[in-house]
């Protein structure tokens, strides 16, 4: 996967997490808040994975 594709996926994850937080807080739906938390965790894991792999190849 190219770096551009990886960054676009990470940006999409954080945007979806924010949308889920907003929808969950506006409607009171706990499922959207939980989904936002899971998407944010996926985002942070992706960030740490990309920095670790970049450090090892340098």
Detailed description of the structure:
- With 58 residues, this protein is mainly alpha-helical.
- It has two helices and no strands.
In short:
The protein contains 2 helices and no strands. It is an all-alpha fold. The radius of gyration is 14 Å and the shape is elongated.
Order of helices and strands: HH
User: DSSP strand (E) fraction?
Assistant: under 5%
Helix % is over 70%
Radius of gyration: 14 Å
Sheet with the most strands, sense and barrel status: none
DSSP strand count: 0
* Tally of helical segments: 2
Low-confidence stretches: none
Our measurement of the CA-to-CA distance between the termini, rounded to an integer number of angstroms, reads: 17 Å
Mean of all residue-level pLDDT scores = 80
- Pairing-aware structural class of the strands and helices? mainly alpha
Instruction: State the domain count.
Output: 1
Shape annotation: elongated
């Amino acid at each position: 996967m190219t770096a551009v594709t990886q960054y676009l996926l990470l940006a999409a994850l954080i945007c979806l997490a924010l949308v889920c937080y907003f929808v969950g807080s506006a409607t009171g739906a706990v499922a959207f808040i939980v989904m936002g938390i899971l998407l944010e965790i996926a985002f942070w894991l992706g960030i740490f994975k990309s920095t670790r792999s970049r450090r090892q190849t340098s």
